[in-house]
Amino acid sequence: MSEKLAVEPRKSIWRNGNYTWWLAGDTTGAIGRGFSLFIVSFVAYDLSGSEAIAGSINTVILLVILFFSVPGGVITDRSDRRTLVYLYSGVGAVISLFLFALVLMGKLNMGVFIAFMCILGVAVGFFGEASNASLRSIVQGVDYVHAQAANQGRDAAVQLATRPLAGLFYGIAAWLPYLLSGIMFALQGLFFTRIKKSLKASDETAASDARSSDTETSLCDENSGDQELDIDSLDPESPVGFEGEPAMDGEHLFVGMGHVEAEKQNASRPRRGWLSSMKDEFVEGLRYLVGRPTLLTLGIIVTIINLGTAGIAAAITLSLIGRGYAAIEVGYVGVAVGVAVIISSIFAGKIAATHPTGIITIIGLGWCAVSNVPMIFSDSYVMMLVCSFLFGLGMPIINAALIAYIFGRTPEGLQGRVGTVVNLAASGLAALAPLIAGVLVEQVDFRATCAVFVAVCAISFAIALFSARIRNIPVPSHWEQYE
Questions:
Q1: Could you tell me how far CA 342 lies from the centroid of its own chain?
Q2: In angstroms, rounded to a whole number, what is the distance separating the alpha carbons of residues 231 and 227?
């Protein structure tokens, strides 16, 4: 730790031009994706008339995204992230504009709709990690806690605007959301051209290697504790930031051995095929995560809580659509969540940086379950709005704490691969939530469906509560000494 870094005042991230252009690009991309994906249930229901079929199509698209995110994380770690963002925005723009043209001409049918949305899902899986991974090259160290809080507010604002607007535009003209989605995707690529800093994975790797060679002098056992967080640019009195985002995402193989030994082994390995190499790199990310008990437990918790919350959200959407609510009214549920997240984001960064991460995680998981309990007894539209708002209040705090710990404890060189593994764990079962919710809502009722998914949320809370490893996760400034 240099003395200079310890005394220099930290500049606001808003004075970082590269960050503001990244935020603008990432935001427009999120809006484009939101417009395209939010109306899937409406289009599918209009084409089929069935909540179960609408939920099934959502599940198919989510599974496509997850399947292709496996090689996608490795590709992110091997490529220029700027190029990947260009590919992502280009494919998103083209698909959205094709759908716009088909809907406008009245030529859209179920088969064509599923095919085009699956193509978009492939692009999201392959290239969707690139924007998040590139943030690590732009925002460093302790600034990431503040960037994460800002991003939480941004995500809430996007949700706040996208859902009701998508519903409103769909009600005005079914083709309008796709037209706007195509424009937003195109703007993402345009804004990324303004980022001056290199987003090449190789450049980040070189910087990471240079830092690591100064500190790594001995070999580590493969099953030793979590890799120490790279904090060479942080003040020891400051809370430790993290530099990835939930779908969260880098470069320099560092799993269970010293850097020098890793380089020797890599040099001695025979050259392998591209697919075999990608598989090996993904497995390395998986081994890193599984080999650390705290991270493994958190991965299980994230998987379960995502299934529960995704199921509740899907049940609300499909129930309202089936009961004849207008698209914009369904979108207002997202507004309720978004308003709450914006309010909570004001305090999320400070709370996550100054309170024990384990305690925040336990309280946040409990809140996810409790805030949705009233819908077990009432399926009124107002109750759905109220519970969605209450649920949204806890989202930024638990995300800033739990996700921050996972990626704050992941070395720079494995951000993309570990991000892919975490995303699979977090979203794997959750991808089935629309299917499960659709069938239960159609065959039973909304309140019983909600009870099932609230129970799932309660399981994640119980795991965290009774796990000493989770309870004892300290404040961010002491993460590097934990486990």
A1: 17
A2: 12
Q: Quick: pLDDT tens for 40-84.
A: 888 998 888 888 898 899 889 988 988 887 777 777 777 788 888
Q: DSSP assignment, residue 80?
A: B
pLDDT exceeds cutoff 50 at 170: yes
Tokens linked to 133: 């991974």
Cα–Cα distance, 184 to 186 (Å, whole number)? 5
Please give the Cα distance from 219 to 347 (Å, whole number).
41
Q: pTM of this prediction?
A: 0.69
Structure tokens at 358: 């384990």
Length of the chain: 483
pLDDT tens digits along 321-341:
999 888 888 888 888 887 888
CA distance 306 to 62: 13
Query: By three-state DSSP, how is residue 200 classified?
Result: strand
Task: Please tell me the distance from the alpha carbon of residue 403 to that of residue 306, in angstroms, as a whole number.
Answer: 13
Q: Can you name the residues that pair with 80 across neighbouring β-strands?
A: 200
- Candidates 248, 261, 246, 280; CA nearest to 78 is 280
